[in-house]
Write a structure and sequence with these properties.
The complex is a heterodimer of chains A (about 250) and B (about 70). Chain A is built from ten helices and eight strands. By secondary structure, chain A is of the alpha/beta class. Classes of the chains: A alpha/beta (about 250), B alpha+beta (about 70).
């Protein structure tokens, strides 16, 4: 009996990500959710700009590449034109929380029936480790060599808390992938986000606290420990908004 | 009988499976270099494996298949 194997919704090609990059784990969780819900034939993914830009080569479903940050707008268009299809975006923090903030907030407040997987690793990975909107106070990056100074660079944007304050979105949860327990919780959350869309429940966003060993200058395991010690205290895990269960209770 | 197999050519030697294994029976094969130029992970004692799939859960590159 096979206990674990590569999900079918993930193509059988090597991923280009750095060793120990948690993008690979999240790709797999998305693919597992697609497999388990049997939506590979109807799913349409929207790839971002950033490290995950080549996600269209990795998922076995239809994929579209959006301009930087515009994935929620493109997903809105696809979902409205093809309401029977399951539309998801896969975005990093530079894509979703910086240049694409307007698209994200407006797609959320319209409660578009789409699923967003948001990777928060507190840094711009693809461009070489610059400060992101989500970089922690005091975090050393290429563009903040003395640590992020909140008096000039401001405070990190907590996307889940921000969007949960809106009346629109249906489901907002923050998870992490730094250990086996958290990966299993992330899997549940991502599956629920897809289920919400299948059931027509509206906008779901899963923020995944991830690591970037290369640009943080750490080994893969040190990076996961840093997630536990520094990232999770600043970005607490949990469900920030769940209109789907409130409806169930009524 | 639990069986763990590694697609060695996909492995990037990040070592996350090594740390995830509760039985500590996975290690990087320092004397092997795969297609990508990394030392791939491998299992040292198949008989101690409990098929928990923690290694495969943490593997970012879907290198590991677990059977029992």
């Amino acid at each position: 009996m096979v206990v674990f194997e590569k999900p079918h919704a993930l193509c059988d090609v090597p991923l280009h990500y750095c060793p120990g990059c948690t993008h690979g784990i999240v790709h797999r969780l998305v693919a597992e959710a697609i497999d388990e819900l049997g939506i590979e034939g109807t799913a349409i993914g929207v790839a971002p700009v950033g490290c995950a830009v080549m996600a269209y080569d990795y998922f076995n479903c239809d994929m579209v590449e959006a301009a930087h940050g515009r994935a929620p707008a493109v997903a809105t268009g696809i979902k409205r034109a093809l309401p029977e299809n399951i539309v998801f975006t896969y975005q990093g923090d530079g894509d979703l929380a910086s240049i694409g903030m307007a698209e994200t907030v407006h797609a959320a407040t319209r409660n578009e029936n789409i699923t967003i997987i948001f990777i928060n690793n507190a840094i711009y990975g693809m461009t070489g480790g610059q400060m992101a909107p989500t970089s922690l106070p005091g975090q050393v990056t290429q563009t903040s060599p003395y640590g992020r100074d909140v008096t000039t660079a401001g405070f990190p944007i907590k996307v889940s808390e921000l969007l949960a304050a809106l009346d629109g979105p249906s489901y907002i949860q923050r998870v992490a992938v730094n250990n086996v327990k958290n990966v299993k919780q992330a899997k549940k959350a991502i599956k629920k986000a897809f289920e919400n869309q299948v059931q027509g429940k509206g906008f779901s966003l899963i923020e995944v606290v991830s690591s970037c060993p290369t640009n943080w200058g750490m080994t893969p395991q040190q990076a996961l420990d840093w997630v536990e010690e520094k990232m999770i205290p600043y970005y607490p895990l949990g469900v920030y908004k769940d209109k789907t269960s409130e409806e169930g209770e009524k | 009988m639990p069986k763990v197999s590694f697609k060695e050519d996909l492995c990037k030697g990040c070592g996350l499976c090594v740390n995830a294994c509760p039985k500590q029976i996975i290690e990087l094969k320092k004397d092997v270099i795969n297609k990508k130029g990394h030392s791939p992970a491998g299992i040292t004692d198949q008989s101690k494996c409990i098929a928990c799939a923690f290694c495969a859960t943490m593997c970012p590159d879907c290198v590991i298949t677990v059977e029992k």
